Each structure stands twice: as structure tokens, then as C-alpha cells.
Amino acid sequence: MSGQIQRADGRKPVPLSMLREARRQRAWRLREARRKQWQYRFRRIRRAFLSVLIIALGAIVASVGLGGLPDNFWLLSLMLAFVSFCLLSIYPATPKPKAEDLHETDLRQLAAGTELWLESRRPALPPPALDAVDMIGVRLEQLSPQLETLDPAAPAAREVRKLLADHLPALVDSYTRIPSSLRREEHAGSTPATQLTEGLHVIAGEIESMSLQLSRNDLDALAVRGRFLESKYVTPPQEYS
Amino acid sequence: MNATGERTTTAEELKLTPPDPVPALAPERAAGLVPVDDEQKSKLQVRVTEFVEELVAQDANSPEFGKRVDQITNMGRREIAEAAGQSNRFLDRPVRAMNETSGVGADLAELRRTVEDLDPSRKGNLLAPRKIFGVIPFGNKLKNYFDSYQSAQGHISAILARLQGGKDELLMDNAAIDVERQNLWKALGKLEQMIFMSKALDAELEQKAADLDATDPAKAKAIRETALFYVRQRTQDLLTQMAVSVQGYLALDLVKKNNVELIKGVDRASTTTVGALRTAVTVAQAMTSQKLVLDQITALNTTTANIIDATGQMLKDNTARIHEQAAGSTIPLETLSRAFQNIYETMDSIDTFKLKALDSMKQTVTALESEVGKSKAYIARAQGQAEAVTDARATAGSKGLLDALD
């Protein structure tokens, strides 16, 4: 619970309930990701079996058509089937989310894509940074439906993309490039691990304020509606004379 | 006759007062408009003292010292940006109902044209018998005149309904202004805190520099040339933005007041029109014993006047009196003319109001535009500095010390 400890820098600690919620969401996401992975594997194996079947059928059809085949042809086709089975059950490898892909991702998928990518980097990150990663996960979850209605050409969209596709991967990658033995050495005032944690917290805060910014119009619109109804139907008419 | 005319004028003269234009506000006078309470002040003071202590504890040439000076240059950036966004929105706000081509203005003009067609004083002598070629008596002028009400009532009630719609729009506008002003008030409070903080910083740094003059002149010089310099620059930025925002805040109030006056005018125009039509019904009955049925108008009167109209009650009483007079008066047509005169007076006062209101609006917008222009330059500079120090901020040890309180 390092998030619970009051930090010397005055940053507010992450509330426990929020962290718990974040972990719950993360577990669900992991389950989803694992399910997707298995789906992918099954598809590969299906394809491998299919190739064996096609080779066998082809051999039978050829033998019927030509009225018999040489003996070693059977051996040859058996080997071919074996090789194709092996190849197709290994390749293509299960796709791993890449930071470069985030640039091309559709804005609607961006939040989910970033989450998956960040999840894949999780093992490489230091324990104190994991709280921040969880927080980013929660906030991305919140941001995701908002991005669906956002115009991709709007300045806000550009800002979101810049933060999620550029700044976040750049921060994490520049940390993971540092050899693990140096990650706890002090450099430029503090250790790389602390710098990463701080940076991730800043990004989490920024995602939240972006989300707030995006919903500001709706918040205002609702408040205006309420105020209008009040002034039309509730306020005694004496008020505006 | 004159006595009747006097008595039928509405009991209370409609007076629409355009609000005065918002005067330009000097940045020096901008501070102190939104109160910062003592508790907040002491909290901010503690932060400032802590910050200055930390700053002075660093070596004047160390990167740590530079980092803290960066924080000063970044101070209040968020608050300024937020307040700037809000006061710019005032300039985007169209002055609704003030233009003649659409909305309430157009509807009022159309209502006036329609009503003028019905005005008995423009119809010549209605009591004279109608004759073909001036010789053969044919029909009744008065009867034809009252028949024209029936054909016009659909049109009039459509205009009145549109006016009610326009009034709703004005109310909606005012609701939006209320919300915007609330947001702006919050932003102003934050700005005020930052101004208090930067002034406190100024004083403390000045004091510290004076103290250090004897013991460590190099550090005193560094404090004066970097920290204090930036603090003063930031104070100026904050004050400029404050002036703009306060002006925007007041200008929003101006728009709101204009709308309220206009709503009053629309209400009065609707009720005087309905009043005149009701008078016509009574007069028609008295003079031609013809039952004039203006159902649409009556329906409109009962639905709208009940819900919202401040002047409605007063006018209802008034119409009752008109009815009495019309029924009893020897010259009912005079009463009807007088009722039409009421409509014209209402519309004339709306027109004069609009002219004056437009004028003060224009003055306000011009003043605000130049102020916003000034503050935009500051914001651009602040933005540049902000990008330069974002990285420093991410790793800064004492982030949050120079932020406003929630």
C-alpha cells in the first residue's frame, strides 16, 4: 500500500477504495486479455489441422486421378503435412501490443490500446510505480467512452493522442532501457524508479483533468437546464420586476 | 373622453432601463474584488513561508534553486488559463434578441405590423355608413372591421406563441449566464488566492534578500534577480487576467440584465396585445351586438399569463376595468384606440431600450476585447514557459506548494 503513505512531496495519497477498484478492473482486463490469447491459439491450431486435412485429401484425390502413386510419395506428403502442421501452429505469433501501433490506432480504441500496452509493460516496472499504473488504468477506463464521441480532428483529441501515444510510452520506454542494476542508483536528484513513478502520477492526473475538460460542456449543459427550469417554473415572478 | 383615456392607460408605466456599460478596469484595481477569507490567507501564508525557506536553504547556483524558481514562473498558469477560457466565452456569446432579423426582435416587429392593420384609428370613420359609389348604402363598416379580427387572430396567436418561445430562449440564456458566472466566480477566487500568494511571496523574498545582504550578498542578488523578478512578472500577469475576468463577469451580468428587461418587454407586449383584443371583443358586443369569438387569443391568455407573467395579474385587472369602461362608455371606440396605443407605447419603449442597451453592450465588448488582447499575450508567454518546465515539474520535489487551495 505504498499509495497510502503520505508522501514528503505533498501529493495526495491514492484512496484505498479507488485502488481496490483499479485492481478489480485490472483483473477483469487481464482475464479478457487471456481469453483473447487463447482464442488466438485455438485459431492457429485449427488452421494447422486444416492444412493436414487438405494435404491428405489432395494426396487421395491425386492418387485416384492418376490411378496410383509411387510409394515414397506417401512418405513425402506425410512429411509435408508434419512440417506445415508445425509451422502453422507456431506462426503467426500472438500479436503483442506495440507503442508504435498506438499512433495508428483509431481514437475510439486508443484508451483500450494504451491500457493493453501498459499492461504488457507491467512486469518491467518497479513496484512503487504499479499504483500509478493502476490509477492510469482506472482513468483510461473513464476516458474511453468520452473519446468515442470526440471529433478526431479537435484540438482536445490531439492532446489526448499526444499524451497517450507519445508521452506515456516515451516515459516507460526510457525507463525500461536503463539496465536494471542502474534503476535504483540516484541520478539527477532522485532514482529513475522514483522519477518514473512521479511521471506516471502526473500522467494519471493529466488524464483525469482531460476527462474533466471533455465533460465540462455536458456538466454545464445540465446545470443550465436545471437553472432554466427553476427560473421558468419555480422562481416567483416578482423576482424580475 | 379624456378621463376615460387616462384611466385606461396601464396603472404602471413600463420602464425598461438599459444597464450602464461596464467600465474598463485597471489591473491595479482588479485585486480584492473577490474576498479570500482569513483562514485561507493564513494557509497560503504558511505555504509561502515554507517555499521561501526551502528556496533560501538551497545554494544559489544549484539546480535545486533553479527548479524552485521555475515553479515561480509556472505559478498560477492553470488558474490564468482557466479564467481566460471563461472570459473569452463572453465574447462568443451572441447578443440574442438584439438583432432585428431574427428571434424576439423580428417577432415584435411582425406583431406591430399585424396590430397596426387592426388599429381602429387607422380605419377612418368606422361609424359612417358604408356606401357603394358613395351613394348606395351597403353593409356595415364596423361589422367588417370586427370581422377582420377573426381572420387575424390565427396570425397573432402564432406570433405570440413565437414570442413566448423567444422568451424561453432568453431565460435559457440567462440560466447559461448564471452557470457561467458561477464558474467564473470560482476561477476568480482561485486567481485572487494566487494574487495574494504572489504578493506574499514578493514581500517575503524582499525581506529575505534584505536579511541576506549582510551575510550572503551573492544569494541576495540571485534572489532579487531571478526569484523576485519572476514573482513580480507573475503578479502582473495575474492582475491583468483578474481585470479581464472581473470585467467579463460584470459584462455577463449586463447581458443578463438586458435579457431580463427584454423579457419584461415581451411580456408586456403580449399582454397589451391580448388586452386590446379583449377590449375589441367587448366593444364589438357593445356596438354591434356581434359576438366576436377570439378563442385562440383567449386560450393563449389563460395559459401564458397564468404561468409566468409578472405584469399579467396587473393587466388582467386592468382588462377587467377596460371591459367595464368599454361596456359603459358612450364612445367605446376611443377605448379601443387607447388599448392599441398601449401596445405601441410598449413596443416603442422596447425599441428605445434596445438602442441604448446595444450601445452600452458595444462599449463593454470593445473594452473587454482590448483587455482580452492584452491578457492573451501574457497567456502565450506563460504557455511557453510552462512547456519548458513541464519536465521539471514532473520531478519537482515540492510540487503543489504554489498551487491554489481547493
Give a nutshell description of this structure.
Chain A is mostly helical and 241 residues long.
Q: What is the percent of helical residues of chain B?
A: over 70%
Largest sheet of chain A: none
Q: What is the helix/strand order of chain A?
A: HHHHHHH
Low-confidence stretches of chain A: 1-10
Terminal Cα span of chain B = 69 Å
* Number of continuous helical runs of chain A: 7
Report the β-strand fraction of chain B as a percent range: under 5%
Strand content of chain A: under 5%
How widely separated are the two ends of chain A?
60 Å
Oligomerization state: heterodimer
Strand order of the largest sheet of chain B: 1-2
Main pleated-sheet profile of chain B: 2 strands, antiparallel
Topology:
The complex is a heterodimer of chains A (about 240) and B (about 400).
Chain A lengths: L15 H51 L4 H20 L10 H4 L2 H15 L5 H22 L6 H22 L15 H43 L7
Helix pairs in contact in A: 1-2, 1-5, 4-5, 4-6, 5-7, 6-7
Chain B lengths: L1 H7 L18 H4 L7 H20 L5 H11 L3 H16 L10 H16 L12 E2 L3 E2 L3 H75 L1 H72 L6 H13 L2 H19 L3 H64 L11
Antiparallel strand pairs in B: 1-2
Helix pairs in contact in B: 3-7, 4-11, 5-7, 5-8, 5-11, 6-7, 6-11, 7-8, 7-9, 8-9, 8-10, 8-11, 10-11
